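#onboarding

Welcome to the new folks! Below is a worked example of what a typical request in this channel looks like: someone posts a single protein sequence, and someone else replies with the predicted structure as tokens. Don't worry about understanding the tokens yet, we'll cover that in week two.

Example request:
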Amino acid sequence: MKTVRVAAAIILREGKLYATQRAHGALKDGWELPGGKVEENETLKEALKREIREELDMEIEVGELFRTVEYDYPDFHLSMACFLCTLAAGEEPTLKVHKAARWLDKETLESVEWLPADVALVGEIKKKCL
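Example response:
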């Protein structure tokens, strides 16, 4: 099975987590942490900064690795490195490829349909970060 390596941003602000909804592909309409595929000769943190710039037109500060999620989808194995991140001063996300986005707090975290690979991770974020 093919392995897809991605880096994802756990962006927290004022007790809320930033989540995005996929606009296309096999996992269309599912909610996830923003981020994307790691390209050849790119570190995880470099990939994450690039993906956030491309998808949300903003800069982030990438902090420590929170957790790496390993998950088997029907067609591929996902290896997702999830980093704690903050928005650079004055930055606000602008959707460029996603269908929607929301800032979710403890009470609204389960109000969206998270992608399967994100479900356990979101529970851990809720316990440790929100």
